[in-house]
Design brief:
The chain is an alpha+beta fold. It is built from eleven helices and nine strands. It has a domain of 173 residues: Serine Threonine Protein Phosphatase 5, Tetratricopeptide repeat (Alpha Horseshoe), CATH 1.25.40.10. Strands 4-9-8-6-7 form a five-stranded mixed beta sheet. Strands 1-2 form a two-stranded antiparallel sheet. Helix 7 packs antiparallel against helix 8 and helix 8 runs antiparallel to helix 9.
Length: 347
């Protein structure tokens, strides 16, 4: 599916980057045009519950010159493709010693080497225009970001090509897998937000719980600022945590950057932990997000299963408003799928 980027100048110092809203191709194929409103995730400025600590002690303003990204993205589903994991669909700071941004991609079986390129795109963001850097490596281990000065307002992407000729550009999320540099005016705001969620006294972060809460708060700031590469740097080292919040945060972040299989895996782990601890509210919240990912992939039966279980959880919590909303989503998807099945020719 073709995606279009536009750059609209607000003033000589600011540029608005309009991230494309993804429309599910399978919905269109099934005649499910009205399903999308019933499945849409919360607005771009909504807060996922794992970010409560960031909201409590300082949050991203989302008023940056770059604007907001919306919608969900296909991608990260084909294990035979060396799709880019990071940096991907993200705002980043200038790469350097403090922000190294290691380049990561999906390892592919049977591959002996990978060629990695950094591309600069055309002004219109419609195709890669200039290869700024290239290297060839024999393993899929993360590699350092090249020592280049990037320009704010310019769109970049990473391409990885196997020695068998398979490119990361074959990933369904290719057109939304690039990144941009923060504008200068963003740094002061970002620093103040991070300072607000970082314990002043090192003793505040002695316990594992306190340290994890601080990490989630920092990741929450990066998430709300759409700096997903930075959020992953904070979250992924916590992946052995017994907390469903960590895996929910990972699921949300992977989903935002179009790594849907990694998102599903993280949400499933979060569900396992939430269920083991009897946390019904967390289970309900996670299932809604998991259903959205399934719907993005066109896996509507799986989405319905999650939504129905989610409805049961909210019924236990006596959350009637949420039950009504879920009934609407379930009814719309079910009726449309039934209509399509009745109208399909016999095999």
């Amino acid at each position: 599916m073709v995606r279009v980027w536009k750059l609209a100048l607000r003033n000589p110092r600011q540029a608005v980057f309009l991230w494309p809203r993804f429309t599910l191709a399978l919905m269109l194929g099934l005649g499910l045009g009205i399903v999308e409103p019933a499945l849409n995730s919360p607005p771009a400025d909504a807060c996922f519950f794992w970010q409560a600590c960031a909201r409590r002690r300082g949050q991203a303003s989302n008023t940056r010159a770059g604007g907001k990204r919306t919608g969900r993205i296909l991608g990260g589903n084909d294990a035979s493709i060396p799709y880019v994991i990071s940096p991907r669909n993200s705002w980043i700071a200038q790469p350097g010693p403090e922000q190294p941004y290691p380049i990561r991609w999906n390892p592919v079986d049977g591959v002996n080497s990978y060629t990695v390129r950094l591309w600069q795109w055309t002004y219109e963001r419609d195709l890669p225009d200039l290869a700024l850097w290239e290297t060839t490596v024999e393993t899929a281990d993360p590699i350092p970001f090249p020592a280049l000065i990037l320009a704010p307002g310019t769109y970049y992407s990473i391409e990885v090509v196997t020695d068998t000729g398979v490119s990361s550009d074959l990933d369904a999320g290719y057109f939304a897998s690039g990144f941009q540099l923060l504008f200068e005016e963003d740094y002061g705001v970002l620093r103040s937000q991070l300072a607000a969620v970082t314990p002043v006294d090192p003793a505040d972060a002695i316990s594992q719980d306190a340290s994890e809460e601080a990490a989630l708060a920092r990741a929450g700031v990066f998430f709300l600022e759409e700096m997903y590469a930075d959020a992953l740097v904070v979250l992924e080292p916590l992946a052995d945590s017994p907390s469903n919040l960590v895996y929910t945060a990972l699921g949300d972040t992977y989903s935002k950057i179009g790594l849907n299989q990694l998102s599903i895996d993280a949400y499933k782990q979060a569900l396992t932990l939430a269920s083991a601890s009897g946390d019904i509210l967390s289970e309900a919240t996670i299932r809604v997000n998991l259903a959205d990912v399934y719907a993005t992939l066109g896996l509507f039966d799986d989405a319905l299963q999650q939504l129905r279980q989610d409805r049961s959880s909210y019924e236990q919590l006596s959350e009637e408003t949420e039950v009504v909303r879920l009934n609407l989503r379930i009814d719309v998807i079910s009726s449309r799928l039934a209509s399509h099945s009745e109208g399909s020719p016999a095999p």
